[in-house]
Design brief:
Elements: H1 2-46, E1 53-54, E2 58-59, E3 84-85, E4 91-92, E5 117-119, E6 145-147, E7 163-168, H2 174-183, E8 193-197, H3 202-205, E9 213-215, H4 224-239, E10 245-250, E11 254-255, H5 257-264, E12 275-277, E13 285-288, E14 296-299, E15 308-311, H6 312-322, H7 326-334, H8 338-349, E16 355-356, H9 372-375, E17 380-381, E18 384-385, E19 390-391, H10 409-416
Parallel strand pairs: 7-8, 7-10, 8-9, 12-16
Antiparallel strand pairs: 1-4, 2-3, 5-6, 10-15, 11-17, 12-15, 13-14, 18-19
Helix pairs in contact: 4-7, 6-8, 7-8
Length: 426
């Protein structure tokens, strides 16, 4: 009996040892995998939480674009993304793959839900912002957030009457461009729109609200001095208005007024320093400043050809550089035109950054590639028509043919507002 008991005991010990050895072997193989998985999970929690998830159908432009958030100079690159893709709500772009953004997304980027977030005053801290652009490793945070069940986002939401819309044009374009805008989108924002031109025009003064067609007495050419002169006066007029947003457009832009209001409602213009638009740059502009000889500065800017908007909080900070004739002086100091000078003031002189919104579109872009079902979600659109070249949005069965409506703005307007005057009744 004792021998049998000893034999059974040795067998049990042997099995236990074998199981132990097997367990050690298994752990030796899967341990590193578990460690990698843990590390990845940790990185995903700490490093990927702020990545941009691109939602719904997106239209990608062949030209390099750039998506930045306020306070960050990082440039993101979207690699391996097809030119057109659908239902990309789960597309995540790791930061290590982001060097330059090659994709221009033609619909609204996702926004962190802010129902229980209270925006606090500006603090220069090294943490992530809660705004909508998805910046990576921000160098500073302009609006911090704290969770509070009883907190409110801001005092009051943006409405159309809060927005100042300045449109830059010239007398030579009154009949060919300004008339078209007055018949289309400007009819939806008459009180908010101020037109900055270079000559008096009694015919068009009668078509707008009194005082909203402003002769700047600036040069009639397209020189840096003339452009900066008009935009500088635009800042001066804004400061005299009780508005919370400054938006700049060119006379070849169509503005979707409803989409602009909805987009700006994401921000608090009274506290957040916001500069938003779109740029086609692959890298920053490098410039010198006559006021600081020997120094070189880098910055990005929102092209005026696509339109850009600036919050009142930021305009007040910019005022010493852009009001009372000082904007023209800045343009002369850096020797760049008005939209670039605005970027210089924002990014260099006030230490803020451009927030990219891809739904601002200029005539430089491949407008004809924007799908018909995405046109109505854009904020601004444009066109370019000359003797040898035509670039417009594509509306194959619009309310008007291309002879009557070469810019396609009339057809777009009737898509958005079918009951408008001049639109054919179905």
């Amino acid at each position: 009996m004792q021998r049998k008991a000893k034999k059974t005991c040795f067998k049990l010990i042997g099995k236990v040892l074998l199981l132990g050895i097997a367990a050690c072997v298994i752990l030796a193989f899967i341990g590193p995998c578990l460690s990698i998985r843990f590390n990845l999970a940790s990185k995903n929690k700490e490093g990927f939480g702020h990545l941009q998830a691109y939602k719904d159908t997106a239209l990608l432009d062949q030209s390099d674009g750039r998506r930045r958030q306020k306070g960050n100079s990082a440039i993101e690159d979207v690699k391996g993304v097809p030119k057109l893709f659908k239902n990309a709500s789960n597309l995540i772009v790791p930061p290590k793959q982001n060097k330059r953004l090659q994709a221009k997304i033609k619909n609204n980027p996702p926004v962190k839900k802010l129902n229980s977030v209270k925006l606090l005053p500006h603090k220069d801290v090294n943490n992530k912002s809660s705004n909508s652009s998805g910046k990576l490793e921000p160098k500073q945070n302009h609006v911090t957030s704290s969770i509070s069940s009883n907190a409110t986002i801001w005092q009051r939401q943006t409405h159309l009457e809060d927005i100042f819309i300045g449109v830059k044009t010239g007398g030579v374009y009154h009949k060919t461009r300004l008339g078209l805008l007055l018949e289309t989108w400007m009819s939806k924002a008459q009180n908010q729109t101020f037109i900055f031109t270079d000559e008096d025009d009694e015919e068009y003064e009668k078509k707008v609200i009194d005082g909203h067609l402003i002769n700047t007495h600036c040069g009639k050419d397209h020189s840096r001095e003339s452009l900066c002169c008009k935009t500088g006066l635009m800042f001066d007029v804004f400061m005299k208005q009780d508005k919370r947003w400054f938006c700049h457009l060119d006379d070849d832009n169509y503005l979707n007024v409803k989409n602009l209001v909805a987009y700006l409602q994401k921000y608090n213009p009274d506290k957040e320093e916001i500069y938003t638009g779109f740029t086609q740059l692959r890298g920053p502009i490098k410039t010198s400043d006559k006021a600081k000889p020997g120094e070189t500065f880098k910055f990005y800017f929102g092209t005026s050809g696509a339109g850009f908007c600036i919050s009142k909080a930021l305009i007040l900070k910019m005022a010493p550089h852009v009001c009372n004739g000082n904007f023209v002086k800045v343009c002369e100091r850096i020797r760049w035109p008005d939209d670039m000078a605005v970027g210089f003031v924002v990014e260099v002189l006030t230490n803020n950054s451009l927030i990219i919104e891809p739904r601002f579109n200029s005539h430089i872009e491949a407008l004809g590639n924007i799908r018909l079902d995405l046109l109505t979600s854009q904020i601004t659109l444009s066109y370019k028509i000359d003797k040898t070249f035509t670039k417009t949005i594509h509306i194959p069965k619009g309310a008007f043919n291309t002879t009557v409506d070469p810019t396609r703005f009339r057809s777009l307007h009737c898509m958005l507002y079918p009951d408008s005057d001049g639109c054919p009744k179905v």
